[in-house]
Amino acid sequence: MVGEARDPESDVGPLDGLTVLDLSRVLVGPFCTMQLGDLGAEVIKVERPGQGDQTRTWVPPAFSKGDDEGKESAYYVSVNRNKRSIQLDLTTEAGRAVVRDLAREADVLVENFRVGKTEEWDLGYGDLVDENPGLVYCAISGYGEWGPDRDRPAYDIMMQARGGFMSFTGVEGGPPVRIGVALADVGAGMYATQAILAALLERELGDGRGQKIDVSLLDGQAAWTSYMATNYFASGEPPGRMGSKHPNIVPYRAFETADDYVVVACSSDRFWPPLCEAIDRPDLLADERFETNEGRVRNREELDRELEETFAALSTDEAVERLDEHDVPASRVRDVSEVFADPQIEARGMLAEAEHPTAGTVRFPGSPMHFSRTPTTVRRHPPALGEHTESVLREYGYGDRDIDELRSRGAISE
């Protein structure tokens, strides 16, 4: 069943009662704050008047009721549900003063400006902590707040290259390949969320004080090299491109079939006998070279040739059916349309939707975090630019005269 937007009062997430001030934009910060919103936090997204988050302009594709005026960028929709949007011009002192007012009562602040920018605006952690000692302040940047490259620009494809991922992604002998999703941004966004939750827990268990968190895209990529890095540390040989193959497990890769591909994951020796039975290759099972995973890794080229020939004679449906019957982990390679038509994905609520006031029905992947008592839900549609400016300001004590003054000073749009 497709998840639907629900009354904000009907479900209470585990972070209900917490307020997040979101000064971030594009992907890494909004992905982090969306997760906090999915968990029940009140997220106030601060955007530039008239322009908003850059991803609002990243079209096509876009959701729309049929006219350009009400369209919403699909990219923007992907990481901005469960938030309220206010327009504030942070280049004006009046706009920055509003942020300070909001920050006094916030539990969390997330920003991903270039290093030092919030300090220039007197919106750094040191500028806000005296009036809100419990504030958890998360700064996300390309390279972090110290080191020789702290001031350099950073984008996902650069981080995938500099962080090593493009050195071992792609086919052997082929050009470097970027992983299709912005892995550096999403990874750093996940680390930021994890760090924020840890800091909130420490605040509750400790003396009530918050702290500053520094997360960088490059650090995240270095951490995510994981076993590729330790393989290098153990062998002295940097891993190279292997296509879908695994450096430590054989067979664990995609094989071309008569009409497409099948992925086989023989992740332990117990799967080797049923794999050989499934493809009717008792000769491979009897071959001592392939009896253990270590032997299969050492004799990878010989085994790959045999398996490639066998799978090439089968259709993908036939290969998957045979492997499934023998309980060997396997799958066809599906595109996104097939993923979100999967009954398992549907059963888990991983296809969600919300009604947007101008763009109509917007659909997006749901939250993978499932709780027994405190559900994650789609409580709010991805907001239109500045949709909640006045309502949020009034909640923080701003009256009609104050709002008119902010407009006259250019802090919020007309």
UniProtKB/TrEMBL annotation:
Instruction: State the organism named in the record.
Output: Halorubrum xinjiangense
Q: What are the protein's UniProt keywords?
A: Transferase
> Which taxonomic lineage is given here?
Archaea, Methanobacteriati, Methanobacteriota, Stenosarchaea group, Halobacteria
Q: Which InterPro entries match?
A: CoA-transferase_III_domain, CoA-Trfase_fam_III, CoA-Trfase_III_dom3_sf, CoA-Trfase_III_dom_1_sf
Pfam families in UniProt: CoA_transf_3
The protein's name is: Crotonobetainyl-CoA:carnitine CoA-transferase CaiB
Q: Which domain of life is it from?
A: Archaea
What the entry lists under SUPFAM superfamilies is as follows: CoA-transferase family III (CaiB/BaiF) (SSF89796)
Instruction: Mention one GO molecular function.
Output: CoA-transferase activity
